[in-house]
Amino acid sequence: MTSGTSGDPDRGSPRFEGTDSYVATRDLTVAVNAAVTLERPLLIKGEPGTGKTVLALEVARALGAPLIEWHIKSTTKAQQGLYEYDAVSRLRDGQLGDERVHDIRNYIKRGKLWDAFAAEERPVLLIDEIDKADIEFPNDLLQELDRMEFFVYETGETVSARRRPIVIITSNNEKELPDAFLRRCFFHYIRFPDPETMGAIVEVHFPKLKSRLVSEALRVFYELRDMPGLKKKPSTSELLDWLKLLLNEDIDASVLRETDSRKVIPPLAGALIKNEQDMHLFERLAFLSRRKGD
Fold this sequence. Notes:
Elements: E1 5-7, E2 14-16, H1 26-38, E3 42-46, H2 52-63, E4 67-71, H3 78-82, E5 83-85, H4 87-96, E6 108-110, H5 112-118, E7 124-128, H6 137-140, H7 142-147, E8 149-152, E9 157-160, E10 166-171, H8 179-182, E11 186-190, H9 195-205, H10 211-225, H11 236-248, H12 253-257, H13 276-293
Parallel strand pairs: 3-10, 3-11, 4-7, 7-10
Antiparallel strand pairs: 1-2, 5-6, 8-9
Helix pairs in contact: 9-10
């Protein structure tokens, strides 16, 4: 995949084509550019560890745009993305006779959407893991994301976006998102990379890694993912961690070549297997397989 951007002859605007550190499939680049053209939020779903959050960083880097990140927690409210008014501090300062109390703007903290609306350059706004918040959270942002403006009641001003930000929203499918919200988004599901795409991703992160080790590591990795009954399948990021450990421990490809994940747990498997249920499953299957072999 080429890096950087290329000019759009029709609009003269940059287009995302992936970067030298992020392998973007054709359907993903099409989705990003479609969302930019439509000026709609891009809703990205996919397995954890497939690069959803990193995508926003790479889009910003490729387009030469500032990145504003809003990482959502279970307690996050939509209003926090606009602004927060600190009435308690103002009351305290009033009791102390602080001169700041005469200007209410001293007690208004701008949120991430306000930062994005006020940015001089068109930014990329990441709303990360929106499904962690309350079910009403997406609906509470509908008007602001549609109109690209909001009203500040304390000061009586309307904050409007200087330039419509590129909005990338990620979800791990922990909760269903409201239909009204989905209608306003361009949707893309990042499919788990096939072995060929995964090989390209590994090449980006480990350009000098021996092809034999990569080949054997990918074989073992996909065998693990295909194991029936697995509670948590290893992800792309966990594969990269595992390869880093294999390099650090100087594990030879021949060690992996002799590893049949149906019979033997692979070396440094703690980078790939992340709970005791899956570890017990591997141990049980390996034991049963060895007994059949005997």
